[in-house]
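Researcher: First entry.
Model:
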Amino acid sequence: MSTGQTPPELTIPIGMNLDEVKKDLAKLKELLAQAGQAGVAGFDDAKKSASGFLDVLGEFATHQGYQVVKDAAWAMAGAFDEAYQHIRGVAREFTQLQQAMTQVAALQGRSNSDKFTREQADLAVQASLKADEWTKFQEQFQSYGGAFIEGPNAKLNGDDATKYQQYVAEFAKARGLNPSEAAQLAGGLLQFQEGPTDASTMIDRFGKVFKTLERAPTPVPQLLPQMTRVMAQGASPEEASRMLAIMSEAMPGEEETGVTNVLKAIRNARLGGRGAELGVTKGMTPMQQVQAAAAAIQERVAAGEDQDALMAEYFPDIREYRGMSGFLNRGLRGGGFERTGAYQAETPSDWVSTELDAWEASDGGRRARLQAEEQWRRIINGQGQAAGEEAMQRARNALLAEDRFGTAGPSDAIRGLLSPIAGSRDDQLVRERAIQDALAQAQAAGVDVSGFSAAERNGLLPGMGAGFGQSAYAGNEMLVKLLEEIRDNTARTGPGAGRPLNVQPPNPRTRP
């Protein structure tokens, strides 16, 4: 096409039969009037809002008040859409949380049911934790200590095990740590605990160990994962924390390397028949061996022997040399052995509980609980809506199988007119199918559905299911109510069904 040349106009002929248009509009008005009567007893407000809108929409059908209708439609659509999006949002949050708890349920040997999800959410808010924080904590704790809170190897009973976990998780949060970072230590402490115990004992041990690590130069999150590896060398939790704290002054960032290599060198000397030369005797704990070796070297150096020669003889590897130098200089000569021992001896048994009480009373602690409560309330709201979201998903899958979204017909044009208040055509189709399926289930289960119109029970017109003309909000309420009545009528009181009550969150954790 040459420049400056005006292209010919493209004309698409459209035929319109005005008589047929008037009939369609009259039919639309009749259908909307029927749909305006839809609903369930107890949803009068939603019905009144929908009916009021339908009256105005009727004026549109007679070509009157177009601008008024448009303004009213968008205003009402916004209100309904906000409510509906909240409902869908909390339902999806509940479902996502449930999926995130799959591993936790498996580790606990529980069914990943709605009841289980709600139980875990309750435990979380008791500890001022959000449910996702509690989930991550559980994943770590169950991996390290789960085998010791159930079955023949159990060292804590159910209530004490729960209390112990809640204290540790909340304490970590109060200290600015991710609770999951403390879970490994909590599980490790229980793993190395001798025989049955109780929550008070375990919380006391955790407090003493944590305070020792907290006083070290290295940040606690870096020391926590090293604890169980040092404990695997035979050290008690108390000893492991003391040795890591001392080594953090000499080999920051390499604490575990320093500790384990020193223990390896001492073991080699003992196996080679030279343990007595380092003051090490049979039956000593790892910490006692380290202290004895440091004291023996110090004594021999004081008697005139060369320190470097001694170190090279018993700790020839550079990692062994650096580690033992750290224990000698920072542990023995720097007072680290006595200082870390004092941390644990002087830490009161109720230190963790006292610190938590102070944190909960603080501005930060109070706000953390409020944030945890907000998520908890969204979860229990989502629990009541999850069944409706599941029904919608089933309906969506069925429509996809039929390729319904890929086809269009006259009824879809009417749905297009309703989109400002009832949502997109696809959303309307899904909602209609879900309600129609629920009505069929209700009738099969013997539920009294007389509160629904004949049109709703049987489908309004071919291609239009129950719920046609309803706002997304009102349609969702109808669906959830139907599912509740099906459950109640068939005595299926499984967890997760039913609308949540306006309940208060569980009480905060109590002293063990």
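Researcher: Second entry.
Model:
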Amino acid sequence: MSCIVWNARGLGNQRAFRELKRLVAEKNPSLLFLSETKLRDNQCQWWKNVLGFSGMFIVNCLGRSGGLMLMWKEPFGVRIMSYTMGHIDCTVRHSEKFWRFTGFYGNPESNKRYLSWDLLLRLHGMPEYSGIPWIVGGDFNEVCYDTEKIGGNIRPLHQTQAFRDTLIHVPFKTCMEVPHSFNPHKSTFRFETHWATEDECSDVIARGWCTLDASIMLSDRISQCKKALMAWAGDRFRCLPRQIKQKRDILNSLKTHDKWQDSAIDIQRLEKEVELLSSNEEIYWKQRSKANWMAYGDQNSKYFHACASRRRARNLISGLVSSHRDWCTDKSSMAEIVLDYFSNLFMSTNPSSHVTSQAIEHIVPKLNEDMNATLCAKFSTEEVRKALFDMHPDKALGPDGMSAFFFQK
């Protein structure tokens, strides 16, 4: 069994989404408690579906502050006993074991902190829970030791013997670690959208595009841009996951060092670098996948399996009917049927000129002279621009590897 308690400090941004999604995928918790979600109930259902939890209970935020969320997976049986803006108290039943969990968030105003401690004492003194194993986890907003000042002060209570097989994950400011990225052995060129976030990218493209020889064709200019971009991006963006991991390891070592205060500037710099690399990685995968797959494709969800099964069934040819009305399932017979069909389909029957002229006479033209003149007219710059910006920036990649985004940008 695995539990996570985390002060999210707002779930309404991409960084929080990436961070929480990575954390859940890495730890695979059965129970997840989040404080300071800054969300209301109509915004939380999406999070439950994306993260793959079966049950959820929320406490709405008040304005732009607060908000609690408790999620769990089957076969956990969770019963909510009480809740306030500062806690969610519940009982949990799993594998014939019965225990109690309280997600706690201390009052952020120091002059009202005593109310949070009074609440915890009242929860502790409830007689109906006497003798039941109890876990309390969350952000107490109370600093007891200097070592708690870095990245937050989420502190669970000590685990009892009843929870010797339980893992309590208490994340602070973690960094994104993602799997596969840029493949140096990939031969096909593709303009990466995240390259445009770099200031140098425009200069690289300008050097490849501009030339003193005005007679150079458009295709040659694009080819020069490709070579310039490959030379520039090859070293900068190669092995992106390794860069993220290296920076993350350095960041974690600085944060856990006894004299971390001396490295505060380096910690902030590394956090920004890791965030930028993580953002580039997300753009990389978004460019290669539809929005649905970006949200649900890696969650091992029913949606993912249904789509994959449907696509596989649609693409599978189990058998074909021959011209003699025989049902054939072996590969060699099916190959012959396909070959014969398309050979006959595109083979001429050598009709006479008389038959051909009669057929043409019965064809009614769909285009009049005005329509034909419009189609044959020279295209304008505005027409090209409109057609270009009507395209999706990351779809319909050309044979030259340049997406519509490249020309739009």
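Model: Note on the second entry: The chain is about 40% helix and 15% strand.
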